[in-house]
Hints:
By secondary structure, this protein is an all-alpha fold.
Amino acid sequence: MGRINVSRVILGGLLAGLVINIGETLLNVVVLAQALEDMLRGRNLPTLGGSAIGGFVFFAFILGIMTVCLYAAIRPRFGPGPKTAVIAGLFVWYFAYFYSTSAMVLMGFYGAKIATVGVVWGLVEIVLASIAGAWLYTE
């Protein structure tokens, strides 16, 4: 079993993070903008500012790096390529998107529309990000 190429994990992860950031920007600024604004206003919360947005951007890049790291870790068992990238993406989607959004719905923070759109969007987003990041990964 080979060693994980950390520099390629970071490079692929940054590409994956870019895909995630583009997807999240489209989702939150275009697709769900009004619903999110209404939700925040309904809870007496301020609209998100620069530091929160900066944090989301930063953590999206970390999520991309961790996704490619998972791809690199499972690659010896499943083989290189898009199938393994999809498997890694599905694992990340479950823990980062589905589970956390389900928790927010159960606590009453998100409504069904925002949750459903976000989880489905996230599935496509993270799988595409994982494939893109895996494309740059070599051992």
